[in-house]
Design goal:
The protein is globular, with a radius of gyration of 16 Å. Strand 4 and strand 5 form a beta hairpin. It has a single domain, classed as endopeptidase fold (from Nostoc punctiforme), CATH 3.90.1720. It contains 5 helices and 8 strands; from the N terminus they run βββαβββαβαααβ. Helix content is 23%, strand content 21%. With 201 residues, it is α+β, with helices and mostly antiparallel strands.
Length: 201
């Protein structure tokens, strides 16, 4: 941790710091849960329309694996214990929400921010997310700018927006009329530098 409350960790071998974005896919290939409800069933449907593999996003807060997401229970926090994404082990914290780790998106990488400025941004992104804890899930994906409720990628988008970083900026995602008012998990992945779990070999 540094003086700004910025933490470092590793998830499935990938480095992650406060404010970085954890990206996942629907379903779990390593968990036998026949009764489980797949995470973000709506996002599974959306993923059939929008190209890409990322269906859900969460923000790393720290310390020791603490994360935050907008999921079925609204905005809530959970812990990735031991640096390994294990959907079954986290179900008690996240509800019947089963997903597979895909990679990490790094919204601040490559922006040329001085070290102190980057740390400040990371701390402010985390503070914004924490301030939304307990708010309900936003079912109206077109209502992106309101802050009474959140869907997963909206929370990430709104956390970075005050920092002058627009994560809703991939024109190739928004091919259908009106979809520019939606920020997709895949879009956040594409507009950020990122690393996949498979890059760890």
């Amino acid at each position: 941790m540094d003086s700004h409350g910025v933490f470092s960790y590793r998830i499935n071998g990938l480095p992650v710091q406060t404010g970085d974005v954890i990206c996942t896919q629907n379903g779990a290939v390593d968990v036998d849960l026949p009764e489980a409800i797949r995470p973000g069933e709506f996002w599974h449907w959306v993923s059939q329309i929008v190209p890409g593999d990322v269906d859900h996003v969460a923000v790393y807060l720290g310390p020791r694996g603490r994360c935050i997401e907008a999921g079925a229970w609204g905005v809530s926090s959970f812990v990735v214990k031991g640096g390994r994404w294990n959907a079954a082990r986290m179900m008690a914290q996240r509800g019947r929400f089963v997903d597979t780790f895909y990679g990490i998106a790094y919204p601040l990488e490559g922006r040329g921010l001085p070290t102190e400025a980057e740390r400040r941004v990371r701390a402010e992104v985390a503070a914004y997310c924490i301030a939304q804890l307990g708010k309900p899930y936003n079912l109206n994906l077109l209502n992106l700018e309101q802050e009474h409720s959140f869907y997963c990628s909206q929370l990430v988008y709104k956390a970075y927006q005050p920092q002058g970083i627009n994560l809703n900026s991939d024109p190739h995602i928004h091919m259908l009329p009106g979809t520019q008012r939606i920020v997709y998990p895949q879009e956040i992945w594409k507009v950020c530098r990122h690393r996949t779990a498979s890059s760890q070999g």
